[in-house]
Specification:
- By secondary structure, the chain is an alpha/beta fold.
- It has a single domain, classed as Rossmann fold (3-Layer(aba) Sandwich).
- It is about 30% helix and about 25% strand.
């Protein structure tokens, strides 16, 4: 079996043979409020704090202060990890005007930044939050797919395991551009469903290469310590 990187999310890793395969590009998508960023924070924090794998979290939409607050609320120590360069949280929001005519940062700018910073920081886990911000740079789904394909090939050549976060539309589409899930090695969908006036969070592993994975829709909860997936339960 390929070497795995555990996410540290209770219940999730047992659905996917222990975690994400090393040096793969993985997608987590869902609507607003479904827990996507918290999933990515678990992945980074667990790698740095428990497994000695330096992590980098690239922020393109929220602020660093906001995500640090999330980590503190769920008992994830960040300050010591950052001081020791084990978990880097980098706000690239200022680069969102780096493109021509003040457009958002694109995949080329991301690749140029990562080409040097991944090696210098010895990063093993990378989260990019989110693809939706990068997608604003491109005028058609075809162009977005072509650029994402090139960017994903670059990431797979690095000694890093990547988690891409993407927003899902409020309609029936799973991803904003309809192409992200085909390029990634795995696709984890976080649902947020209205059941009798109450929002219910769910998790489904829709795809994971190199893995015999569970395909059931499971309940997912946000607890005092973060995300918990009810691996022994299913949503019908």
């Amino acid at each position: 079996m390929d070497e795995r990187l555990a996410t540290g999310i209770e219940g999730f890793d047992q659905l996917v043979q222990g975690g994400f395969p090393r040096q793969t590009v993985n997608l987590v998508a869902g609507p607003a409020g479904s827990g996507k960023s918290l999933f990515g924070l678990h992945f980074c924090h667990s790698g740095a704090a428990r497994f000695g794998e330096p992590a980098m979290y690239l922020i393109l939409e929220e602020t660093k202060a906001s995500l640090q607050r999330v980590m503190r609320n769920f008992g994830m120590d960040f300050d010591d990890l950052e001081r020791s360069n084990r978990c880097l949280m980098i706000d690239l929001g200022e680069l969102r005007v780096a493109g021509p005519d003040g457009s958002t940062v694109g995949f080329q700018e991301l690749q140029e930044f990562l080409a040097s910073s991944l090696k210098s920081a010895h990063v093993k886990r990378l989260v990019i939050d989110s693809l939706s911000a990068v997608g604003l740079r491109y005028t058609t789904p075809g162009e977005f797919r072509e650029r994402l394909f090139t960017f994903s090939r670059f990431l797979r050549r690095q000694d890093v395991t990547t988690l891409l976060i993407a927003e899902s539309p409020d309609t029936n589409g799973l991803t904003a551009y309809g192409v992200e899930q085909f390029i990634a090695d795995s696709f984890v969908y976080l649902g947020l469903e209205d059941v009798k006036g109450e929002l219910r969070r769910t998790l489904t592993v829709r795809k994971m290469r190199f893995t015999k994975h569970d395909t059931t829709k499971h309940p997912m909860y946000i607890t005092g310590s973060g995300l918990v997936v009810a691996a022994d339960e299913k949503v019908v």
